[in-house]
Design brief:
Length: 161
């Protein structure tokens, strides 16, 4: 992990990789993130940058790799997936978050975009399946319950592949 992290830094910064921050633009070049529809959210969630530039320290990078590793627990994977899907960072998945999530998964192109009616029906179905307390949003525990019933989530690593 350290070697991979330091290779993302300019040559002159590699000796001090432990104290350096890798810019988001470099993180996005990782093969695992290059084609990931959530790449920007992944950087946002794992970055501890005070500048809001989504750069990563070595610790941030380790956290990201650990969360997406095959050995990460379902709780860890689902916790980070929830944070990544919570686009407005308010601690719940509401209709706007779910719409952004669906758009990321289906692509933003006109040929793949759902109609308003299709989107509304899909969001309604998601909420009916997941919103246990019927408050119109999905909280972390509701999300984790749904994910625990999905063997594909753990088999395919959630977001990384």
């Amino acid at each position: 992990a350290y070697k991979r992290f330091s290779e993302l830094l300019p040559k002159e910064e590699r000796e001090n990789a432990c104290s350096a921050r890798v810019p988001k633009s470099q993180i996005l070049r990782l093969p695992e993130l290059r084609a990931n529809p959530f790449q920007h959210r992944i950087c946002r969630v794992f970055s501890t940058s005070d500048d809001g530039d989504d750069s990563m320290s070595f610790e941030d990078f380790l956290d990201m790799l650990s969360a997406f590793s095959d050995s990460a627990t379902l709780d860890i994977k689902s916790h980070y997936a929830f944070r990544i899907f919570d686009f407005d960072d308010d601690g719940t998945l509401d209709r706007k978050d779910l719409e952004k999530l669906v758009n990321c998964l289906t692509g933003q192109g006109e040929e793949s975009q759902l109609s308003s009616a299709e989107m509304e029906q899909l969001i309604q179905n998601i909420l009916e399946e997941s919103d246990i307390d019927k408050d119109g949003t999905i909280n972390l525990s509701e999300f984790q319950l749904v994910v625990s019933r999905s063997p594909d989530f753990t088999r395919y690593g959630g977001l990384w592949r």
